[in-house]
Amino acid sequence: MNVRVIWDLGRNTANLLFFLFTLRERKKTWRRVVGDAGFRWFVYTQTVPGLVTIIGPSIQTYKKWCKQNSVQPIIETIGVGAEQAQLMWIGSKQPERVILYLHGGGFSLPMGDYSVKFWRYVQLALQEQGGADVSVAILDYSLIPEVEFPTPLRQTVATIDHLISNGIHGSNIQITGDSAGGNLVLQFLLHMLHPVDGVPSVPPGTKLRGAYLMSPWVFLRAREGVRSYSENDNWDVVAPAAKFADFGDRVIAGLPDEAGLPYIDASYAPPGWYANAESIVDRVLITGGGMECIRDDIIEFAQTFCKDHGGAQLLIDEYGVHNDPFYDFMVDEKKLSELTPKIIRWFVEGFSKF
User: Taking burial as the number of CB atoms within 10 A of a residue's CB, which of 166, 252, 283, 300 is the most buried?
Assistant: First the structure.
């Protein structure tokens, strides 16, 4: 363990003790405070290959969750060639309505088990509150460095085509993603508006019921003058902001040309880039945490997007960190994030209004 790692471990421990006596951390339980600090240390001290090894393949995480919960795994292979990927189901694979989930991880990391737990909770809540037959489909898209842009986008298009081909209308599909998964959701919406060369088209006339972006990572490189980078450097679970930049450099380095930049980094979006978004998706929810490094990035993007989509809204959890609702499920916390019931209500309203 090098000196920098030891120093950061000590700083994190000191921060943890300080957190317990601050207003912002009084909003969280001891379980969450300790869990958040441990997650931050884990992300900061490990290399990307190290994180990949420790987390394990997404499909392995899904199967382990299924075994622990006595659930029969349902895995489909969708697409062919560059579009081929695995689709993992929570619930029936022939439901009336579907939430398509695209996980985060900087396009380099597989899915964490806490996200499976979260979406299972949402799925059961939707069935209880909305009385609807809803399943969650998790796309195990390919990661960097094995692939580069636009392969994950190709796989997302293939998944939507697969769902529609199996009788699920666009009005019964809500797509969602956290962090890099939120970026991929945005890529998909932009592809519908401005088709990417060489990527198959979405079935004609497709309009999705909703799109939810949790803590979307839409500026891939740290920018000058963004206050939340420094303001939340000691609070967020993914920090410092340079950590996001490291992941961003890996993504951008693999681009075949600059034509892909406006699809993956909001810094390169030309004026009017999100215009007519209402024609492809009815409703959009964007959430973020007041304590995350990329808070101001999220707010800036959301303000621009919401100007072009009357059905879009932004919610900021004042004391939330990056992907905050997930970590309650990482530590089995019963006192859930204030965003979680709002997210569930948003999905319920989406599936109940036609």
Answer: 283
CATH code, 48-351: 3.40.50.1820
The residues, any chain, with a CB within 8 Å of residue 225's CB and separated by 6 or more, are none
Strand pairing partners for 287?
Answer: 214, 315
Q: How far apart are CA 211 and CA 95, in angstroms?
A: 18
| Domain boundaries of the chain, sorted by first residue | 1-45, 48-351
Q: Determine contact, residues 219/288, Cβ cutoff 8 Å.
A: no
**pTM of the prediction?**
0.93
Judge whether 15 and 38 are in contact, CB under 8 Å: no
Distances (CA, A) of 4 to 7, 10, 295, 312: 5, 10, 26, 43
**pLDDT of 4 over the 70 cut:** no
Which uninterrupted H or E stretch holds 184?
A: helix 180-193
Q: Provide the terminal-to-terminal Cα distance of the chain, rounded to the nearest Å.
A: 57
CB 155 within 8 A of CB 107: no
Q: How far apart are CA 217 and CA 244, in angstroms?
A: 8
